[in-house]
From TrEMBL:
This is Uncharacterized protein.
Amino acid sequence: MSGNLPIPVVHLGKSKKDCSFDKKVVYLIVLQTIKYNEQSDTKL
């Protein structure tokens, strides 16, 4: 499963540029998850 990832996690850990980019992506994913959770909570 891990071999099918578009971007290897090892490269994200070693490269500083990829690391900062990875943090931005994770931050956006967290925001989207929070928004989705809020929407699902309001529906319930």
